[in-house]
Structure formats: C-alpha cells, structure tokens
Amino acid sequence: MIRFQCPNGQFSWDKVSIGFIGAGQMAQAMAKGWIKAGVVKPDRVVASAPTNRNLAAFKELGCSTTNSNVDVLKMSNIIIIAVKPHMIGSVVEDLRSNVDFGTIKKQTIFISVAAGVPLADLEKFHFNAVTSVVRIMTNVAFAECQAMTASCFGSVAYPCTKEVLTMLFEPVGSHISLPESLMNVFVGMSGSGIAFMFSLLEGMSDGGVRLGLPRETSNTIAIQTMLGASLLAQANMGKRKLAELRESVCSPGGTTMAGLYTLEKNAVKAALMEAVEASCKRSEELGCAGKK
Length: 292
Known about the structure:
The protein has helices at about 25-35, 55-60, 70-75, 90-100, 120-125, 160-170, 185-190, 195-210, 215-235, 240-250, 255-265, 270-290, and strands at about 5, 10, 20, 45-50, 65, 80, 110, 130-135, 145-155, 175. The protein is of the alpha/beta class. An eight-stranded mixed β-sheet has the order 5-4-3-6-7-8-9-10, sandwiched between helices. A two-stranded antiparallel sheet has the order 1-2. Strand 3 (about 20), helix 1 and strand 4 form a beta-alpha-beta unit. It is elongated. It starts with a strand and ends with a helix. It is found in: Cytoplasm.
C-alpha cells in the first residue's frame, strides 16, 4: 500500500479513483492508457458527458459513466477536467451551484487538460483553498502508454502532489515539468505535433505507393522507419545531436543526400517550425476565448 503524506492529509494510492469531466478523444486515450498500464482498475474510473455518445468507449473499458459532473466530483479524488477551453467556466459554475466546494476532500487533485487555459484562470474558481490544481498537456499516444506529458502547478503544490503525478504519468510515457509560460509551446510540439508526425508518415507511405509498393507494405515501412529513428535519437540524447545522426546516414553523392536536398528545397523543416508556432498561437487564442 502506497501512501503520500501531504500537509492537507494522507493520500492513499490504493484508494485512487479517477474521474473525467468530459469524455472525448483525449479523455478516452488517458483512461485506456492508465488501465493498460495498470495504474488504475476500470472500476475505479468514472466519466461524465451530457450525452451517452462518448461514454460508450468508457463502458467498453468497464468504467462507470454518468451524465452528471457532480457524480464525478463525489466519486473521485483525482478529477480530470477534459472539456473544451470555452466550456470550463460553465462546467465549474454548474458544479459550484450544486456542490459545496468546501466539503471536497482536501486530498483531491484537479487536473486540467484544456489547451491554453492558464492556472490563474483555473484557480479563480476556488475549488478549495487547500486543494491542488494542476495543468497538463499530453497527446493521444497515451492510449498506447507512449505519451509525452508536461505539467505545471498552481499556487497549492505539495511535494506529494508531484509524487502522485509521477505515479500517474511515468507508466504511460515520458513526463516533464515545465514553466507555465512554455505550456503552449508544448501544445504545438507534442499535443498537436503527433498529428504532424502522422502527416509525415502519410507522405512517406504515399511516396512508396507512388513508386509501386502496396499500401499496407508502404505503411509498415514508413512506421517502422520513424519508430527506429525515434528510438535511435532517444538512445543518443545527450551524446549526439540530431544533425549528427542525420549526417551519419549520408554519403557524398548518395541516395540520402538526394532525398534531403528535395526536403530542403521544399522547406520541410521550416514548415514544421511554422506548424509548431501556429499551434502554439492557437492554443493561446483558445485560452483567451475561454475567458469570455
């Protein structure tokens, strides 16, 4: 039995219950990943949504479902706020009108995955004077326990809160802490960036098909090539720069240089840099829209 001693009481891992307010794609991916990794059992997960359409995926996992956000609040000690940024205000106000936030267990942790919504705005809702509020960003690879997750903490951040986050996020990929000022950059690189990787994979696969490979074969080659490159880069972190790894594949006048020349001529790296920036800016805009 794992327990964390917090100034606001004791947090027992064996009694962890995770509640999702919002049951869309990100919430579903998180639930799948945590269950697959053994972080939590399905009967310790509950999700709420106004309709049953998205809740079907949670039912298939063996989780509890409800149409009431209040039920999630009462049944869970880790609350994942997984609604669109512009919906957070109305969701929390609905909770406040139906629940006395002062009665919420002090060990409860509120985790927001709403893009762009800053901690200062989240803490304006005064969940509880001694309750931890955390902002995270992650991506849909969570479902396969290969997520990249970043977190930042509100004004109430006990050491035990950070320990709980480690228990939550390290089994499902990589987890880092970031200053909140860089969270929107993270959205562009990882939250949205995983879609950029899918586009690159699609382009490579299309290249193979264009030259005669069957689609399934071409997909397999593209996916394994990107996976191999990622693992090789990961194994060399702190030892060799990405540019050095790229150059190690090149021979003067060879096939790789011919392909890289085409990528440079079409400004692929610049396009990726601009894509990250565009997603970052959009995350900032969504956060501003959530204030209105």
